[in-house]
Amino acid sequence: MTIKPLIILPDPLLRQVSAPIERVDSELNQLVDDMLETMYDAPGIGLAAIQVGVPRRLLVIDVAKEGEERQPLVFINPEIVTSSEERSVYEEGCLSIPDYYAEVERPAAVTVKSIDRSGKEQTVEADGLLATCLQHEIDHLNGVLFIDHISRLKREMVIKRFTKAARSKI
Ligand code: NI
């Protein structure tokens, strides 16, 4: 397993729409393992493949609390099939936008259909933190970031800050 470098805002890759995965094979499972290791190392609770530079529709999530046993979840070609009317607010962050957090309102519960790492179809009914995390990560597959759900002023400020930081690194 390898820890992969993370793609950071304002890298244009983060705005790319990821393509569906056609085959679940050992190469894909290698990527899944690398993504899990990268997510646990960060540490984070969710990671989309595009965040390690791979524009494919794949996510890993683990919302187990600190000290609890790991509960890695793998979603290949995930699709939200139902969203609740009820909404909830969570403070979100993103491994591609380090050290920035903001409250985001989203549907409180979602049903997500996807394929698991053995190639089987799975349907997950999620609420709470898992529902928010799934929506955040599925957004990544469509080139959408959590800062797209906050005010334009706040979004422009954070993009400016990260653009400046990226420039000063060169
Ligand atoms: Ni993110």
Describe, in plain words, how this protein is organized in 3D.
- It is a single chain.
- With 170 residues, this protein is of the alpha+beta class.
- The relative contact order is 0.18.
- The mean pLDDT is 97.
- The strands form two sheets. A five-stranded antiparallel beta sheet has the order 1-2-3-6-7. Strands 4-5 form a two-stranded antiparallel sheet.
- The chain has three helices and seven strands.
- The chain is globular and about 45 Å long.
- The longest helix is centred in the last third of the chain and has 18 residues, at 152-169.
- The protein has one domain (12-169): Peptide deformylase (Peptide Deformylase).
Layout: helices, strands, pairs:
Elements: H1 26-41, E1 46-48, E2 58-61, E3 73-83, E4 87-94, E5 97-107, E6 109-115, E7 121-127, H2 128-141, H3 152-169
Antiparallel strand pairs: 1-2, 2-3, 3-6, 4-5, 6-7
Bound molecules: nickel (II) ion (NI).
Nickel (II) ion (NI) binds next to helix 2.
Briefly summarize what is shown.
The protein contains three helices and seven strands.
Strand content: 25-35%
**Using only CA atoms, what is the Rg?**
16 Å
CATH architecture: Alpha-Beta Complex
Q: What is the residue-mean pLDDT, rounded to a whole number?
A: 97
Largest sheet, order of strands side by side?
1-2-3-6-7
Number of strands: 7
What is the CATH class name? Alpha Beta
